[in-house]
Design goal:
heterodimer, A: about 400 residues, alpha+beta, Elongation Factor Tu (Ef-tu), domain 3, seven-stranded mixed β-sheet, 5 helices, B: about 400 residues, Helix Hairpins, nine-stranded antiparallel β-sheet
Chain lengths: ~400, ~400
């Protein structure tokens, strides 16, 4: 009996020790982004920033991947393709200057060695030798300065192309190509992964939340709940509780995109008329849609898919086909951020056909095969800012929170 | 067995059809036409000439088109000019930097020749190695200077090109916030809104918005039109309180009548003859200096035949002939409104007050030719309420 009492007491202690202090409650959560970036293209030079192309509204962005030398391995999504001609001119000029100062350094070194020998043989004075040593040191400094300046100019050129650094979506576009923006915002880019869920929890309940308190997020259309990134929760300035969780790109609104080996292509454009008037006949495609092989120029077309149809949308998965075209000799901006090129012969291409518009980055199209299937997913992640989700905090039977 | 097979096949077929057809039932909404992109220009520099000096501005409400170039970058069809600096300062600076670059190149070339000559002389012991190396030093110093001059010039070429802003898209000038002349500071000068493609914003719950996938058909019926059009599927985005579709848009002659082609020149940029002075010499007329054309030593304008602005009982037609009117300009200019510079007329020829004259005339116009002067509008304009039908 005594033993039984002890065991019972121990069990009660263990049970209490393991129990969360927070009994399970359900709240409404609002999905919010943890990062909302605004990019402009302004620089500190005479060149206030000039834009060649911009990502379009609603574009889902992939982050760039670099190697350890900062070379681009995976191009990611280019948000702003800046005008680098001014900086390129400086770079090319600096290359000439750097080559010249390298030669000067070599000459100064020769003189230094010669005067050193002459000085050692008492054929020249110590003063003249030191003057040559000084020249050589100055030439070394000048060359090193030019090398660094060249590296700076090179970096400046690279920086004119702004690539997405995180998974996100273009929320607004407030500039066009060619704008001399003078530090005005060009693109608003909202992070999508990780994503935050904002929960209005009374302060007294927040105080008893522990990092060990289990949290489940229930997303509409998903059977299983999602956990959160422990240790990343915090109290927002408005008093609400912010939790962070992993987010996923979707194929359709509530269907998470799985890697089944099919290429995932997000950047498509419709075949349009080159001229702005609908009665004209010349067709056009984005210049970045044109590819070349041994047989000539071609585009990748989404088979059986068309934009601008009033009775039919487009599929999420479909085959792509190579369509050979003859490029015309005219190019213009279509939107304020994409360029189109006229087609002298569109081949089998028709108005409103969808074509892949990102083929210059060979990464995306290296694996495309004529007739091969691809995925054109919804431009969305599973949880989008503004979504409402259910959040269950704590363990045990769920009780609705009075706060919601 | 056969019946069972048929039933199975039918069931599979039905299931297949059901899965292929989006589940969205037809629902009608009201959408608001909204540009998918706007652009604000703040044209200024940090150069010695404080902030810059504007020489040209497009007018508020002007419809704008992008330029067409060939693949080599040569201009094929000019676009509409939005803003341009007064280029005199910049062209002078460009000339200066070009002269420095060319001079540096010549100095380097001469130094190279010297260096080669002294190389030969030192080989033949006619001069010392040291002198030869000094010549090499001169040459490399000259190349260093040349490199910097190349960089400075190329930078300025690109920069000067950037001081002319041409419309990057089909759009409309929505605001002009600065006048011709010196720029007050780094404040916005002009805003434009893109008109094609155009957004259609529909308010709806998030649940409704997320029921509309890329495979859900959507029809847009423009205001005062019975003709529906589709959307650019895949470009749809969620908004804070609904969804935004993107569709194509077209310039109109008026209402919902589209301009089918440009077999007749589409000319939108008209000014009018007005008094040059504000409160004296009413007989002295003037017009926008951008309407002035030169033919040898003669000056002329393109006038809209039979059309006058400011008439209370007669409107301007959408199609009319143009005629060449020779005039003699005075060497007198002033600004009017905040975007236009007018020139005074010494001899107005047959021009009369309120005659309409073409600004920035394209090349190739012919006397007596018919032209189109459409409304400054597209089929769908920002703020229009349109019918949106979602689903099958």
């Amino acid at each position: 009996m005594r033993l039984f009492s002890r065991l019972l007491f121990s069990l009660i202690l263990v049970a209490f020790g393991a129990s969360p202090l927070f009994s399970a409650k359900e709240y409404k959560g609002a999905v919010v982004s943890i990062g909302d970036e605004t990019y402009s293209t302004s620089t500190g030079g005479y060149d206030r920033g000039f834009i060649i192309t911009l990502a379009k509204l609603g574009q889902i962005g992939d982050p760039v991947v670099y190697d350890s030398n900062h070379n681009v391995v995976y191009p990611g999504t280019v948000l702003i393709n800046g005008f680098d001609l001014a900086w390129m001119g400086m770079y090319l000029g600096q290359q000439i200057a750097t080559t010249a100062t390298k030669g000067l350094q070599g000459l100064a070194y020769d003189n230094y060695l010669r005067y050193k020998k002459l000085y050692q043989e008492n054929a020249e004075s110590q003063q003249d030798f030191e003057a040559q040593a000084s020249n050589y040191a100055a030439a070394q400094g000048s060359y090193a300065f030019n090398v660094d300046q060249l590296a700076m100019d090179y970096q400046q050129n690279i920086m004119m192309k702004t690539r997405a650094q995180v998974e996100g979506i273009v929320k607004s576009v407030t500039q066009s190509a060619g704008s001399d923006v003078g530090s005005a915002p060009a693109i608003e880019y909202v992070w999508l992964n990780p994503i935050a869920v904002k929960v209005n929890i009374p302060r007294e309940e927040q105080k008893v939340l522990l990092s060990s308190t289990p949290v489940k997020i229930y997303v509409k259309g998903q059977n299983e709940p999602f956990g959160i990134y422990d240790g990343f929760s915090y109290q927002a300035p408005d008093g609400s509780w912010m939790i962070q969780t992993r987010n996923f790109p979707v194929r359709e609104w509530n269907v998470v995109l799985q890697d089944n080996g099919l290429p995932i292509l997000r950047e498509w454009e419709a075949v349009i008329k080159f001229d702005i008037y609908p009665g004209t006949n010349t067709l056009a495609v984005p210049d970045k849609a044109i590819q070349k092989d041994d047989k000539g120029s071609f585009v990748w077309r989404a088979k059986g898919q068309k934009a601008m149809q009033s009775d039919k949308g487009i599929d999420y998965t479909f085959p792509v086909e190579k369509v050979y075209v003859t490029v015309g000799n005219e190019i213009r901006y279509f939107t304020g951020y994409t360029k189109i090129v006229s087609l002298k012969d569109p081949g089998a291409l028709e108005l409103n056909d969808l074509v892949v518009a990102k083929v210059k980055d060979s990464y995306y199209t290296a694996n495309l095969k004529d007739g091969g299937m691809v995925i054109y997913p919804q431009q969305a992640y599973l949880m989008m800012p503004g979504d409402e989700v259910r959040v269950v905090i704590g363990e045990g039977p769920v009780e609705k929170s009075k706060a919601n | 067995m056969k019946t069972r097979k048929n039933i199975c096949c039918s069931a599979l077929l039905c299931a297949g059809l059901l899965s292929a057809v989006p589940a969205m039932a037809v629902k009608e909404y009201t959408g608001t036409v909204t540009p998918t992109a706007t652009s604000t220009y703040a044209m200024f520099t940090c150069a010695q000439i404080i902030y810059g000096n504007i020489g040209y501005m497009a007018r508020p409400g002007q419809l704008i088109r992008p330029e067409v170039k060939d693949l080599q970058g040569n201009l094929v069809k000019p676009g509409d000019l939005l803003m341009q600096f007064d280029m005199r300062y910049w062209n002078a600076q460009l000339d200066e930097l070009k002269a420095i670059r060319d001079s540096a190149k010549q100095v380097a070339d001469v130094d190279y020749l010297d260096s080669q000559r002294y190389k030969d002389l030192s080989k033949e012991n006619a001069d010392s190695v040291m002198v030869y190396q000094q010549m090499q030093t001169n040459y490399l110093n000259a190349m260093n200077a040349y490199g910097l001059a190349v960089g400075n010039y190329d930078e300025m070429v690109a920069q000067v090109a950037a001081y002319t802003n041409v419309s990057p898209c089909e759009g409309i000038v929505t605001a002009v916030n600065t006048s011709l002349g010196p720029i007050g500071g780094p404040a916005p000068a002009m805003s434009i809104a893109q008109l094609n493609p155009i957004g259609i914003v529909v308010k709806m719950s998030r649940d409704e918005a997320k029921a509309i996938g890329n495979n859900t058909p959507v029809k847009i019926v423009p205001l005062n039109s019975d003709t529906p059009q589709g959307i650019i599927y895949g470009s749809t985005v969620l908004t804070d309180d609904g969804i935004e579709f993107v569709t194509q848009n077209f310039p109109v002659i008026e209402g919902t009548t589209l301009i089918q082609d440009d077999s007749l020149p589409v000319l939108r940029n008209w000014g009018y003859v007005k008094r040059f002075y504000i409160d004296k010499s009413p007989e002295v007329l003037g017009f926008a200096s951008s309407a002035l054309n030169q033919e040898g030593d003669k000056y002329f304008v393109w006038r809209a035949k039979g059309q006058k602005t400011m008439q209370p009982d007669k409107v301007v037609e959408h199609m009319f002939q143009i005629e060449k009117v020779y005039i003699v300009p005075e060497d007198l200019y002033r600004s009017t409104e905040n975007y236009e510079r007018i020139v005074a007329l010494k001899d107005k020829g047959t021009l009369e007050m309120y005659d309409m004259v073409l600004r920035n005339a394209p090349e190739g116009l012919v006397d007596g030719q018919k032209v189109l002067y459409p409304e400054d509008a597209y089929l769908m304009m920002p703020g229009d309420q349109v019918k949106v039908i979602v689903g099958n």
